[in-house]
Specification:
Helix 11 packs antiparallel against helix 12. This protein has five domains: about 120 residues, Macroglobulin (MG2) domain (Immunoglobulin-like, Sandwich); about 270 residues, 7-stranded beta/alpha barrel, CATH 3.20.110.20; about 60 residues, no CATH class; about 100 residues, Immunoglobulins (Immunoglobulin-like, Sandwich), CATH 2.60.40; about 30 residues. By secondary structure, it is α/β, with parallel strands linked by helices. Keywords: Membrane, Transmembrane, Transmembrane helix.
């Protein structure tokens, strides 16, 4: 049977259909992908404060948002009076979420807010959409499915009777690691110079007279002695300190308490004088431009050191709140914002203000944060909350920046200083103005003012004892005595920073150095002095003959000795004379200046007795304890009678002469008597 050939059936269309269904089922739709992508929101800017009849403007960077997403702004009711600041910090620190009832949310679509030129969303809320009562309000922003972004609305209005703006005082340390090195060089890195320059920019752009500069004089001296870039940074600091408060400070940071324990308050005074001299010279300031009234307390300060500082003119103290004993939270639940008193070892009170660690950390984090606008608004809102918690009390905060603060100057000025300069509820003031403005606290309750009946509020320091300096002080005394010798030899006035030796000795007391480093500076300084009086071969450059001879032919005569000065410069010396048989009518010490080369020194001597005698002399520094520079001997032979011999000889001659005259007279009389009369 012949079979008919059957044509095979094609399955292509079926397979194509199945493939299409699979692609439709498993390949995501681009539009669907956009709607399910997580949205992240970041604050670009927000109105620092909103006055009556002004809108609230918020700019947001929203990643992953689509046109149909909703932007929701929820404003929560403010905390009761007296609790705004406490609540704000708990929310910022993550201890709680805004817990008060929200107002009706402000809702916009992304499509309504997009600003293509800025690649961001800009929302403007009319004043009618905002709370009408002034205060600080928690505010949360969500874009689509984003996590809530928390920030703050500062609502201000016309000033009420009795309003006193909240005072904030920025204290900016201008301090670097020690720059004077034991080998006499000055080392300050380019990174450090740039950091100091950024501090100048911040200070210059603050409202006139509102900043306080706490400089380390040794740092400024290092800038002055370094390269042109460093000197340019110093010039910027000079401009920055004009019309701003500059605090006095010792030349380098020292442990005042340790020096007092060692009985060396004189050294504290010396370092403070050296610091003031350096500030005057490097910043071009007069003595009245430098404030000695306010002192920033160090780690090791105690009531004893406060007594020393008070004797040097201090009346006001800035104390880190971590250095103070805590307060009763029932009576003082909010951040402390008034001045108080601390009693020193002399039973005297000094006025004090606590530096707010929370605010200090917030300013530092602002520099390091990628969300700077949100951080800045936290600071502005916190200060405003300080005002709203008690509008009729003179209160304030001190922000003491860390020694190594490296600000992004442009951002600090734009996000923090400029809004503060235009705030109607916060005022920036120097630290001296802060102490003159802020009220003294009542010991019984937060916000109340000290009265005669309440008495002052006193707080105690939490003290830490630093290393003792007794042994180091003795070594330093010896080195300073050596310095005095150097200055007396070479005619250097005993002022600060006249020689590398001065700088090394003063820098050696920096309490940031280890004991080994302290002593390295002293050893290097002493070595510098010894090298200054030696020749390149290492021998002392001033020499005298070991032994010479001299003959005197009279009772009083002048002697000459020759002393060589092998230095390239004149050297002032004191020559001390000693002899058992010779005296020195003009004194046994001769002060003279040795010129380079041989010098003939002439002095008068008197002879006690004839014969040989030994005259010894030493060449010394006019002052100090450097020791002998040279020693010489002179053997003197005298052919002259002593004073007693002259007297006895004179008497003998007088006796003989008297006898001869009398004998002659008697002889003549006898002869005349024997001649017969005629």
């Amino acid at each position: 049977m012949t079979g008919r050939h059957r044509r095979p059936r094609s399955h292509g269309p079926v397979l194509l259909l199945l493939a299409t269904l699979v692609l439709v089922a498993f390949v995501p739709d681009p539009t669907s992908a956009q709607t399910t992508t997580a949205v992240t929101a970041a604050l670009v800017s927000i109105s620092p404060q909103v006055r009556a009849n002004e809108p609230l403007r918020i700019e947001i960077q929203a990643s992953g948002a689509v046109a149909t997403d909703l932007v929701r702004v929820t404003i929560f009711q403010r905390a009761p009076d007296g609790q705004s600041r406490q609540m704000l910090r708990r929310v910022v620190d993550g201890a709680e979420a805004p817990r008060f009832s929200p107002y009706a949310p402000i809702i916009r679509r992304v499509s309504e807010l997009t600003d293509p030129s800025r690649q961001s969303l800009v929302l403007s809320a009319a004043t009618t959409e905002l709370p009408q009562t002034r205060g600080v309000y928690p505010l949360q922003i969500t874009v689509g499915s984003s996590k809530p972004l928390t920030t703050w609305l500062v609502r201000v209005g016309p000033a009420a009777a009795g309003d006193i703006p909240y005072t904030v005082s920025f204290v900016v340390p201008v301090k670097s690691p020690i720059a004077d090195q034991p080998d006499g060089t000055t080392v300050i890195s380019s990174t450090e110079v740039a950091r100091l320059d950024s501090l100048s920019t911040v200070i210059v752009n603050a409202p006139r007279g509102s900043m306080t500069v706490a400089p380390n004089p040794e740092t400024l001296d290092a800038l002055d002695a370094s390269n042109p870039t460093a000197r340019s940074a110093l010039e910027n600091l000079q401009r920055a300190t004009t019309n701003n408060t500059v605090l006095a400070a010792p030349l380098v940071p020292i442990d005042v308490d340790a020096w007092r324990r060692a009985g060396r308050e004189d050294y504290v005074a010396l370092m403070l004088r050296a610091g003031r001299d350096t500030l005057s010279r490097t910043l071009g300031l007069t003595a009245t431009d430098i404030s000695s009234r306010t002192v920033v307390l160090g780690t090791y300060d105690s009531p004893a050191s406060l007594d020393s500082l008070r004797r040097e003119g201090a009346t006001n103290l800035i104390v880190r709140d971590t250095q103070l004993e805590g307060l009763r939270t029932t009576d003082f639940p909010s951040p402390f914002s008034q001045t108080f008193r601390i009693r020193d070892a002399g039973n005297q009170d000094l006025l004090a203000a606590s530096a707010d660690t929370w605010l200090t950390n917030a300013v530092v984090q602002l520099d390091r944060s990628t969300d700077r606008s949100a951080k800045a608004q936290q600071i502005l809102a916190d200060l405003a909350a300080g005002f709203f918690d008690r509008t009729n009390a003179a209160r304030g905060s001190v922000i003491l920046l860390p020694d190594n603060w490296a600000p992004n100057a442009a951002e600090i000025v734009k996000l923090l200083l400029t809004p503060l300069s235009t705030s109607s509820v916060v005022q920036m003031r120097s630290i001296d103005a802060f102490f003159a403005t802020v009220s003294r606290s009542n010991p019984d309750r937060e916000g109340e003012i000290e009265t005669l009946s309440s008495g002052p509020m006193r707080r105690n320091l939490v003290t830490a004892r630093g290393p003792d300096v007794d042994s180091f002080a003795r070594d330093l005394d010896q080195a300073r005595d050596t310095l005095q010798s150097y200055e007396s030899i070479f005619g250097v006035a005993p002022k600060m920073h006249t020689t590398p030796f001065d700088e090394l000795l003063l820098a050696s007391a920096d309490h940031r150095l280890s004991d080994t480093q302290n002593r390295a500076y002293i050893d290097a300084a002493t070595s510098f002095v010894m090298q200054s009086i030696r020749t390149p071969a290492g021998k002392i450059a001033i020499t005298a003959p070991e032994s010479e001879r001299f003959t005197l032919t009279s009772r009083r005569e002048k002697i000459r000795i020759v002393i060589d000065n092998g230095l390239a410069t004149p050297a002032s010396v004191r020559i001390d004379l000693r002899s058992e048989k010779l005296t020195f009518p003009q004194g046994d010490s001769i002060n003279t200046t040795l010129q380079p080369g041989s010098n003939v020194i002439e002095f008068a001597v008197s002879v006690k007795t004839s014969g040989d005698s030994l005259l010894e002399y030493t060449v010394n520094a006019p002052k100090g304890s450097l020791g002998e520079l040279a020693r010489g001997k002179l053997r003197v032979r005298a052919w002259a009678l002593s004073g007693v011999g002259v007297v006895l000889s004179g008497l003998a001659i007088l006796v003989i002469l008297t006898w001869w005259i009398r004998h002659t007279v008697r002889t003549r009389r006898t002869k005349r008597a024997l001649v017969p009369a005629t």
